Description:
Mean pLDDT: 85
Number of strands: 0
Structural class: mainly alpha
Distance between the termini: 48 Å
Oligomer: single chain
Order of helices and strands: HHHHHHHHHHHHHH
Amino acid sequence: MAMAEAHPAGVHPHRARERLALWAALALIVAWGTNFSVQKAVFAALSPGGFLFVRYLIMPVAAALLLTLHYGRRWPRLPRSELLALLKLGIAGHLLHVGLVTYGIHWSTAFSSSLILACGPVFTLLILRWHGLERLTRGQVTGVAVAVAGVLVFLSDKLAGGQWRASGGDLTLLVAASFFSYYTVAAKPLIERHGGAVVMAYGTLLGSAPVVAVSLPAGLQVDWAAVTPAIWAGTLYAVLIAAFLGWMVWGWVNAVRGVARTAPLMYLMPPVAALVAWIVTGERYTLVKLGGAAVTLAGVALAQYASPGRRDPVRDAVAPVD
């Protein structure tokens, strides 16, 4: 009765917060699914290397603002060993993962990119097994096999048609997904010690310099004065909204709803990416491709959730979004 008097609308504050988190998660899925088509348009205008160059001029500024927002002028002081670990994490997450994702999306299609990157939990499982941290259950082995079969069916039209450049983009994305899985496993103990904001910010600050150095020649070739407002808007959307702000909001959503309840929403991202690409670019899909996508996502879900433990890095793993 007291609760009813305190909340006449009949909505408990916790439930209202969870509802808000659910809507935020769904909005992010739409934003991330849309981002694949946005990035392809930006890459076509700037080149993948040009995009990486400008992205990693912007990202350190956003990371510095994040640290300042949380800690003011007194940023956390970390020992040299932790900074070295964060540098390795930054190289894996930004130079290798984001760099390969950028070129993979450019060479592939929006739908293919979203589906291939959704295979991240499979690689997380295999990395944990390789390090002896996870035993594969029968369900997980079956899930990996089903996911691999689904990817082969999904790519069968490209492989049979000799579209090697597009196939190369998908293979590049598979390698990129494996680097994100390494990032997921390696970041977990650092996040437990320092928190997600510190790890994300320091990893970005330390990982940006190598990306800028590698992408500098491509960045210098772009006629920045001729870049249209639409391309600038797409660039800022991809860098700040979909990537940086998106992962901050996603972390809040996980904190409110729990990873186990939120991670399955990531399987909505490939259908959203496919729908947006169909509307915006006219991308077409065969029944074989749609069937392969469904089998792939089913296999990834089985591999991700067939773990004997209630909480583990595989179940908590989410697909990389860039």
